[in-house]
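hey m, so remember when u said the tokens were messed up on ur end? i reran from scratch. heres the input so u can diff it against urs
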Amino acid sequence: MGKYADVGRAKQTARKARRTYPFVPPPELTSGTVPHVPVIIAGGGPIGLATAVDLARRGIRSLALERTNTVSDGSRAICWAKRTLEILDRLGTGERMLEKGVIWNVGKVYFGPNPEPLYTFDLLADKEQKFPAFINLQQYYAEEYLIDRFSELPAASIRWQNEVVGVDNGADRVVVTVRTPAGDYQLSCEYLIAADGHRSPVRNLLGLDFEGRLFEDHFLIADVIMKADFPAERRFWFDPPFNPGQTSLIHKQADDVWRIDFQMGWHIDREAALREENVDAKVRAFLGPDIDYEYEWVSLYTFQCRRMRNFVHGRVIFAGDAAHLVSPFGARGANGGIQDVDNLAWKLALVLEGRASAALLQSYDVERIHGADENILNSSRSTDFMTPKSEVSRAFRDAALELARDFPFARRFVNPGRLSVPCTLDNSPLNTPDSDTFSPCQRPGSPCMDAPVTINNRADWLLRQLGDRFTGIYFAAGAEPAPVALGLPADPVPVQLIVVRQPGAEGRENEIVDPRGLLAKHYDAGPGTFYLIRPDQHVAARWRTFDAVTVREALARCLCL
């Protein structure tokens, strides 16, 4: 096993060859002009790339500026949740992710030297879904797949080795100064999206900062390449014999790469912890003497659960790690960032097209701060449970673990990282509260739940039919024509209509049949029920009967008109 090379804060040896991208001198270096682009995106990671792709699909031209010339080094984010895959499916990369990634739905929790798990859990209760609860796939693949979409979307472009080093956040536009190996130049834009990571230069240029907690503990990531017949499950240990008094975690990734996490404690020598012989001792104790491995990526990190006070600052909007940070346990970082993109792109497109009020962008601030706070709360609780700071809290944790083996009620107290779930946007200003009696599932603010459907005698999925426009879903009774067809708004934003027929019914052309009755079950829908769905596939409003006036009022609320 060769010694890994120092690559800054992380270390690596064997891995797939990273793509690199050439530096092309921008024409502005010699023209002396300051061209205008509708949207500039600072950062070419998964959040910045997804933003460019989503905007381009809506016809909005953007330019991403990335200071490096390659995709991410090392695996970094690896756990991609079902909701994220559904969003990426709309962006055109979800199926590639699913094909390459390692599918998993099951997790196991262990305690002490006992080789048997305390308990096992399944994160995909409803199996009638297109995507699993999670896949594991290295971040660089997610980035490469998004970059491949740029060639198919002329409105999306990216410049490599272009770094934002100056920001003038004006009342009517933003002017950015960009540094390249060949010199500096300037661009202007309507909006600047800061997706430039947790050390965000844009945030620093504007004199802004995070608020929140820094946890006094260190965790070592060792991504190793090995052939092993371990199951493709999430396995988490409390107080294992190979890392006594601490916690550990293992995940399988693509290409026979395995992510191993070790809790290290706070009072450690960070430099010593990253020495190859010390990392080897940890990994070998975990894997045993008979497994050969190489390192792909090794890093030491400290938990942070922090966010900016606001994500929208005039014409500069923050997303992903530039806006909020959580601990990696729970897979809420990149997944939360992709939900930022999903929330922002349709709003920004409608504002730039003049179809919605600029006030709509403030709803991004409200809704995604709610999502960030939800992630931070769960991440903080997970970290507190995994890293007890007193004898009392450790005694509580260990008691909960002892009880969890035999008593299901105790398992809800065990917290090895509450895993990412779709964010329901309760109390959003865009929601129209229920005026009829419904079950709480699929309430206003909820992301739509998928289900198998039939359309034109072909099997499909609901979310594919919803697409990324405002949509009305009408649950029809019997075979009568849908009475809402002529009553849906067409201006300023048209609402497409989906008619859902009951099991066994004959759907007319382009109508959906609910073959197993799952849509009616998930959406608590009887004949005549009508749902208004936002372009990000969140529920805006629902009624037991259709009324054109109330639908128009709900649509206007969604557009802040």
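this time it looks ok to me. The radius of gyration is 25 Å. if urs says something different then somethings off w ur setup not the seq
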